[in-house]
UniProtKB/TrEMBL annotation:
<dbReference type="Pfam" id="PF01566">
    <property type="entry name" value="Nramp"/>
</dbReference>
<feature type="transmembrane region" description="Helical">
    <location>
        <begin position="96"/>
        <end position="127"/>
    </location>
</feature>
<feature type="transmembrane region" description="Helical">
    <location>
        <begin position="55"/>
        <end position="75"/>
    </location>
</feature>
<feature type="transmembrane region" description="Helical">
    <location>
        <begin position="360"/>
        <end position="381"/>
    </location>
</feature>
<feature type="transmembrane region" description="Helical">
    <location>
        <begin position="336"/>
        <end position="354"/>
    </location>
</feature>
<feature type="transmembrane region" description="Helical">
    <location>
        <begin position="195"/>
        <end position="221"/>
    </location>
</feature>
<protein>
    <submittedName>
        <fullName>Divalent metal cation transporter</fullName>
    </submittedName>
</protein>
<keyword id="KW-1133">Transmembrane helix</keyword>
<feature type="transmembrane region" description="Helical">
    <location>
        <begin position="402"/>
        <end position="422"/>
    </location>
</feature>
<dbReference type="InterPro" id="IPR001046">
    <property type="entry name" value="NRAMP_fam"/>
</dbReference>
<feature type="transmembrane region" description="Helical">
    <location>
        <begin position="294"/>
        <end position="315"/>
    </location>
</feature>
<feature type="transmembrane region" description="Helical">
    <location>
        <begin position="160"/>
        <end position="183"/>
    </location>
</feature>
<feature type="transmembrane region" description="Helical">
    <location>
        <begin position="242"/>
        <end position="262"/>
    </location>
</feature>
<feature type="transmembrane region" description="Helical">
    <location>
        <begin position="21"/>
        <end position="43"/>
    </location>
</feature>
<keyword id="KW-0813">Transport</keyword>
<feature type="transmembrane region" description="Helical">
    <location>
        <begin position="133"/>
        <end position="153"/>
    </location>
</feature>
<keyword id="KW-0769">Symport</keyword>
Length: 424
């Protein structure tokens, strides 16, 4: 009996150690999820559900699945080589890294502007200031966290915020299923499969679950995490898959919320950032109760604020490393800080130019992301099938097949979008 008790005790201890082992490695994957669960989820998924009901659920799931091999490249390559994807691009040829860096610079400025304006819009729920001034405050707060706290603080904050957002959103959707839909008498269901909606579809998929260059951030964050603790290949892949699964799950969850509460009501999201923020929080408060309005607003604000912080950190860290590799210079925290300041300043300039028009800005940024997606996808696929990787770490037949299907899918929609512009 004592032996049986001892065996069970050892088994429980072993399981506990394994759980702690994997939980300790969580970080880069959750940071990637935090970067993803911003405009693509809060805006695009919710808007897709509100305007088209459940019709686009399969599109969201499909784009998450078909982009998986290109996102997974970040964790897999770094876990296998101990180097970032940027090192891999350079090994393929200097031109590959230059191509990535050029496109990444444009994406950095545009994406920073988009998430900053969305954060400022959410902040208007609590502070009665102009969206431009709030955008400036958001950037200052983000830079303060990054410059003073660095990766360690970002890692800890993200886990707390992600947990709060996930729980509140799942609770809202669960309750929404029990609320009878309010169908406006004049409501006529629309099909998303019309030329007039191709722009929205492309924009939605551009940041779904995130721009593919985020795979490089995951790669760099993994290297940063390894400075504080050793992480095995198994841990790194588990961390990525966990974060990626959360982004896919919440993308459908936000679509469900928009569909259950807003679809058929005759109401549409306003292009104004201030009004959009109020409409979004109203979705939650209609389900969870008006008394939860400010609590949910605070959670949503923290969510998109964490996205802003991770976007600034990710793009700056990527551009800094690209510069370092291309110029053959040593790592420099001062240069990283300079990159953050430049990206933030240029992003703020774009926010000021759009004057609070949130949805038009986000649609442009997401469309730009989708048009460059095929390039980033190709770079990652080329790297994960190259001879620079040990054979056991290269993509096999299944991942190659999924990658080919993904690139065909992405390229097809790019061609459709270009065609829609031409015929108009």
């Amino acid at each position: 009996m004592e032996k049986l008790y001892s065996a069970n005790s050892n088994l429980n201890t072993s399981r506990l150690k394994r759980s702690r082992y994997f939980l300790a490695a969580l970080g880069p994957g959750l940071l990637m999820a935090a970067a993803a669960i911003g405009a693509s989820h809060l805006v695009s998924s919710t808007r897709a559900g509100a305007e088209f009901g459940w019709q686009l659920a399969w599109v969201i799931l499909a784009v998450n699945l078909l982009k998986y091999p290109f996102f997974a490249a970040g964790a897999r390559y770094t876990a296998a080589t101990g180097e970032s994807l940027l090192h891999g691009y350079l090994k393929q040829g200097r031109g590959y890294l230059l191509l990535f860096s050029g496109l990444n610079t444009l994406a950095a400025i545009a994406s920073t502007a988009g998430v900053t304006m969305l954060t400022a819009a959410m902040l208007t729920l609590f502070i009665p200031l102009s969206i431009d001034l709030l955008a400036f405050i958001v950037l200052i707060a983000s830079l303060t966290i990054l410059i003073l706290g660095h990766y360690a603080l970002l890692d800890k904050l993200t886990k707390i915020i992600m947990l709060a957002l996930t729980v509140s959103t799942l609770a809202a959707v669960a309750l929404a299923f029990n609320i009878p839909p309010v169908i406006h008498p004049d409501f006529i269901p629309q099909s998303p499969w019309q030329w007039a909606n191709i722009g929205f579809l492309v924009a939605m998929m551009g940041w779904m679950p995130a721009p593919i260059e985020v795979s490089v951030w995951n790669s760099l964050w993994l290297l940063e995490k390894q400075k504080s603790q050793p992480i095995s290949k198994k841990q790194a892949i588990f961390d990525f898959n966990f974060g990626y699964l959360i982004t896919a799950l919440l993308a459908v969850t936000f679509l469900a919320l928009g569909s259950l509460v807003m679809h058929g009501s005759g109401e549409q999201f306003s292009p104004s950032g201030v009004k959009f923020a109020s409409q979004l929080i109203t979705l939650y408060s209609q389900v969870l109760g008006e008394q939860t309005r400010y609590l949910i607003g605070a959670v949503a604000l923290l969510c998109i604020f964490s996205t802003t912080v991770t976007v600034i950190d990710g793009y700056s860290r990527t551009l800094n490393m690209s510069w370092q590799l291309l110029r053959k210079q040593q790592d420099s925290n001062r240069r990283l800080t300079t990159m953050m300041l430049i990206i933030s300043a240029l992003g703020l300039a774009i926010v000021l130019f759009f004057k609070g028009a949130l949805l038009p800005l986000l649609e442009i940024v997401m469309t730009l992301a989708f048009m460059t997606t095929i390039v980033f996808a190709w770079l990652n696929y080329k790297l994960m099938t190259s001879n620079s990787l040990p054979e056991q770490d290269r993509y096999g037949i299944k991942m190659k097949g999924l990658s080919a299907l993904g690139m065909f899918y992405l390229l097809s929609f790019v061609c459709l979008f270009i065609y829609s512009i031409v015929i108009q």
